[in-house]
């Protein structure tokens, strides 16, 4: 009897070990063969980046130190929270979007900029005769595979990205999956004239077949021209990476779009810090600021703001109107899906800040007399 028990335990151990080994092998093959992960840093690129003050031992650094140390218990708690069903972390039904007619791009602007929110932190921006997609993700999952994420809240998008005839630029804030979506990029590859991205992010586009001449990589505080539109890359407090071995090997940041008659600010992702005031002093005031306010948690407060900080960040950069972004499309944290915008709106009222809360797909004309301010999310609880 004892021999049989030992034999069963031994066989069980073999099965478990074999199963784990198979999972590890599949994961390794996926990470090495899937194009989703993009390119890797070459030794020549690393040596060139080592000359920068904010690049050390193969990794980019934040100007203000952040504490992202997570012990084993915290990691277990995070995983448990993400796989368990918490109340109201997603809408009660599919979120409807405003259809956007791509044939109207560039028309009826009369010298003004038009900003169209595509959910989360994705935008179509028309400004100074330039058409840009900012951090576009038209896919259903903000992850390299559907098994690694939860489906987006809206089944439809305001338009089919393949319907775009041409794009003057794709602008990327950093290479996390909810800001740089491989499937979307491939769909518009032959329509894009330029890629404007942080240092290191260009390697992904090269891996995906983009011509070197179309890629422009910038360091913090560097500028480039897109037609008559000046674009400046500015700091944020965040991180980067698309796999286990490439964490912080590409830069992250925010963008200033400095037009002839209007100025826009796009925060990308990041924690609150002194950089907002520095950006405002150098490039502000701004007519319109798109500021991240969702996917926050006390465990990663250094790299994602809480909504109250988001409102203050908009004030710091000198924005006349502030729009909350990085919410409304995906569940990437354990707060309710509407708490980012609700807290943002409440704080804005306290600080008497003018805000804009458009529906997904609703076009916003900058410097218009009336900005969208409906509480549309209340229809989905």
Automatic annotation (TrEMBL):
User: Where do the Metallo-beta-lactamase domain residues begin and end?
Assistant: 133-327
Q: Does the keyword Oxidoreductase apply?
A: no
Q: Which UniProt keywords apply?
A: Hydrolase, Membrane, Transmembrane, Transmembrane helix
What are the GO MF terms of this UniProt record?
hydrolase activity
Instruction: Indicate the transmembrane segments per the record.
Output: 12-33
Q: Which InterPro entries match?
A: Metallo-B-lactamas, RibonucZ/Hydroxyglut_hydro
Specify the domain of life of the species encoding this protein: Bacteria
Give the matching Pfam families. Lactamase_B_2
Give the UniProt entry's GO cellular component terms: cytoplasm
The protein's matches in PANTHER family, at most eight in alphabetical order, are given as: N-ACYL-PHOSPHATIDYLETHANOLAMINE-HYDROLYZING PHOSPHOLIPASE D (PTHR15032)
Record's protein name: MBL fold metallo-hydrolase
Q: Which organism is it from?
A: Neolewinella aurantiaca
């Amino acid at each position: 009897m004892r021999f049989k028990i030992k034999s069963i335990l031994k066989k069980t151990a073999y099965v478990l070990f074999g199963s784990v080994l198979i999972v590890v092998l599949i994961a390794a093959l996926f990470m090495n063969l899937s194009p989703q992960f993009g390119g890797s840093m070459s030794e020549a690129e690393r040596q060139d980046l080592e000359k920068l003050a904010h690049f050390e031992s193969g990794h980019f650094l934040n100007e203000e130190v952040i504490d992202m140390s997570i012990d084993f218990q915290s990691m277990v708690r995070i995983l448990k929270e993400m796989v368990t069903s918490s109340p109201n972390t997603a809408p009660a039904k599919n979120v409807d979007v405003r259809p956007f007619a791509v044939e109207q791009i560039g028309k009826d602007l009369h010298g003004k900029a038009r900003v169209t929110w595509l959910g989360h932190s994705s935008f179509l921006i028309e400004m100074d005769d330039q058409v840009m997609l900012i951090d576009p993700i038209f896919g259903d999952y903000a992850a390299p595979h559907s098994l690694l994420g939860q489906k987006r809240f809206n089944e439809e998008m305001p338009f089919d990205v393949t319907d775009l005839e041409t794009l003057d630029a794709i602008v990327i804030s950093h290479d996390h999956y909810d800001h740089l979506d491989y499937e979307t990029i491939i769909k518009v590859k032959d329509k894009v004239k330029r890629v404007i991205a942080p240092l290191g992010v260009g390697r992904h586009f090269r891996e995906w077949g983009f011509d070197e001449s179309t890629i422009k990589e910038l360091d913090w505080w560097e500028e480039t021209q897109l037609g008559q539109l000046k674009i400046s890359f500015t700091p944020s407090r965040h991180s980067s990476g698309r796999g286990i071995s490439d964490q912080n090997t590409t830069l992250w940041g925010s963008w200033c779009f400095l037009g002839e008659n209007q100025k826009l600010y796009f925060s990308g992702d990041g924690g609150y810090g002194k950089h907002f005031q520095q950006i405002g002093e150098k490039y502000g005031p701004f007519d319109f600021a798109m500021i991240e306010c969702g996917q926050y948690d006390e465990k990663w407060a250094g790299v994602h703001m809480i909504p109250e900080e988001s409102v203050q960040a908009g004030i710091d950069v000198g924005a006349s109107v502030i729009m909350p972004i990085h919410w409304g499309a995906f569940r990437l944290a354990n707060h309710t899906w509407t708490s980012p915008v609700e807290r943002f709106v409440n704080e804005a009222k306290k600080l008497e800040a003018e805000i804009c809360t458009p529906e997904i797909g609703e076009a916003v004309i900058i410097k218009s007399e009336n900005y969208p301010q409906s509480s549309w999310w209340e229809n989905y609880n």
